[in-house]
Design a protein that fits this description.
single chain, 252 residues, Rossmann fold, globular
Length: 252
């Protein structure tokens, strides 16, 4: 299916989030999907994925979660993503932006993103899907819990710290979620230990949520993003197949 992509601005309670929107060009209305970026922000590799989602018959919206700090791009030199030695310096600049993504801020933003998505003329009425990457997986869980009657499918890829011992750990929101959940962790990810994986599994099972949690072997943290040194093409394609299967199952 042919698609088109463009930039839009979304009014939120705390300002204006710049975003990228991909839609099918064929006349019709299609289920909506919120795409939550990784820590490296909205950029061409995000465009690639939302265009592919749109080509499968969805309206895909990727907001800049760091809009409180700056408009996208949030990294000045994308070539730095290919050099693992530059990651510590990159995160020195990114961590203050990430710290603003408190659960309350995420929920407020998500309401604005969902409203924008539903108001688009190309978006069909009904539930939406959410997919999140790296830190976006946490944002996705918070969104699904804050809007259980709106979000019918939630996927997270190479997410970290989803089931910690912290008082605001995302897994503690499981009882508020109604969506089907699919989580694909990265192999040997320090932010997704076996203990955390088991804790998340237990939380989702106890809440009676349909879900699947798995680990992609030989796929490091960030395996979906082609502009990073962590990119693994096989794992990226596997992620996309599982994502589209979930969206088709729950939204169409």
């Amino acid at each position: 299916m042919e698609t088109e992509i463009r930039s839009i601005d979304i009014a939120t309670p705390d300002g204006v989030s710049d975003a990228r929107l991909a839609v099918p060009t064929e006349n019709g209305r299609y289920p909506g999907v919120l795409f939550y970026m990784d820590a490296f922000g909205v950029r061409p590799t995000i465009d690639h994925w939302i265009e592919r989602i749109a080509a499968e018959g969805f309206v895909a919206l990727a907001p800049n979660l760091f809009y409180r700090s700056r408009r996208a791009p949030v990294i000045d030199d994308m070539a730095d993503l290919q050099d693992p030695e530059k990651r510590p310096r990159l995160f020195e600049g990114l961590r203050p932006m990430m710290s603003l993504l408190t659960p309350d801020n995420v929920a407020r933003d998500a309401g604005a993103y969902l409203e924008c998505l539903s108001d688009l003329p190309q978006t069909a009425p009904g539930p939406v899907g959410v997919t999140g990457y790296c830190m976006g997986a946490r944002v996705g869980i918070v969104t699904a819990a804050a809007f259980p009657d709106r979000v019918a499918a939630m996927a997270g890829f190479h997410g970290g710290n989803l089931a910690t011992e912290a008082a605001d750990s995302p897994h503690l929101l499981a009882g508020k979620i109604k969506a089907e959940v699919y989580i694909a962790f990265a192999d040997h990810d320090q932010g997704a230990s076996p203990e955390q994986q088991a804790r998340l599994e237990d939380a989702l099972t106890s809440a009676g949520i349909p879900h699947k949690i798995e680990v992609y072997e030989d796929a490091p943290h960030g395996y979906t993003m082609a502009d990073t040194a962590a990119f693994r093409p096989d794992a990226a394609e596997r992620h996309f197949e599982n994502l589209i299967a979930l969206l088709n199952r729950r939204l169409k």
